[in-house]
Design brief:
Shape: globular
Strand content: 5-15%
EC number: 6.3.4.20
Family: Belongs to the QueC family.
Order of helices and strands: EHEHEHEHHEHH
Keywords: ATP-binding, Ligase, Metal-binding, Nucleotide-binding, Queuosine biosynthesis, Zinc
InterPro entries: QueC (IPR018317), Rossmann-like_a/b/a_fold (IPR014729)
Number of strands: 5
Pathway: Purine metabolism; 7-cyano-7-deazaguanine biosynthesis
Radius of gyration: 17 Å
Largest sheet: 5 strands, parallel
């Protein structure tokens, strides 16, 4: 019997990444979930990632540490910058973490090489999202090209693929897809300023997008709010 192919799945603990893990599992991959402690102001999402990895049957779940918080520059890593609660105001918001997805995908790429995995899943979205430049299809395509130039695996002909299965889905579409795959969204945390118990503020951009997504999908919102 041939062994199942391995995939690295970036798992933040939020709604999108949980759906992405379920999609990778449905595709027949042995899923190795990777969460990143990058210096975010709250760690409720990392606790959520552990729950999601277990409930969705990840073969392994690793937590890597990188100190993006040392540089600040984002409301998600610098406590002196307030998280906006007034809704979308145009432009790239202060919740953008400089180079976050580039760093996370690079760490995933390193683990993929060690495991002999040629597939990396990431739950970025370019429809119902906050306008981050590292969530666009152009970025994913560029990173995949780089990955195949920069790695031993890529130069030896083992093509590395970056999967972004949610990138063109609405938030409602993501929720419907995940619900059909058995994702328990009550386990996830999306809020930019969740409390220690994982309860959402209901006001930040992530909360607004999540809440609107459940409403549009016609599915009850299981999110605990503060």
């Amino acid at each position: 019997m041939t062994e199942p192919k391995r995939a690295i799945v970036l798992l933040s603990g939020g709604l999108d990444s949980a759906t992405c893990l379920a999609i990778a599992r449905e595709a027949g991959f042995d899923c190795y979930a990777l969460s990143i402690a990058y210096g975010q102001r709250h760690t409720a999402e990392l606790a959520a990632a552990r729950r999601v990895a277990q409930s969705l049957g990840a073969r392994e779940h690793r937590l890597a540490h990188v100190s993006l918080g040392e540089f600040g520059g984002s409301a998600l890593t610098d406590s002196s910058i307030p998280v906006p609660i007034e809704g979308a105001v145009g432009g790239i918001p202060v919740t953008y973490v400089p180079a976050r997805n580039t760093v996370m995908l690079s760490i995933a790429l390193a683990w993929a090489e060690v495991l002999g995995a040629q597939d990396i899943y990431v739950g970025v979205n370019a429809v119902d999202y906050s306008g981050y430049p590292d969530c666009r299809p152009e970025f994913i395509a560029a990173f995949e090209a780089m990955a195949n130039l920069a790695t031993k695996a890529g130069t030896e002909g083992a093509h590395i693929t970056i999967h972004a299965p949610l990138i063109q889905l609405s938030k409602a579409g993501i929720i419907q897809r995940g619900t059909a795959l058995g994702v328990d969204y009550a386990q996830t945390v999306s809020c930019y300023q969740a409390d220690d118990a994982g309860r959402a503020c209901g006001l930040c951009d992530a909360c607004r997008l999540r809440k609107a997504g459940f409403e549009a999908a016609g599915i009850p919102d299981p999110t605990p709010y503060q």
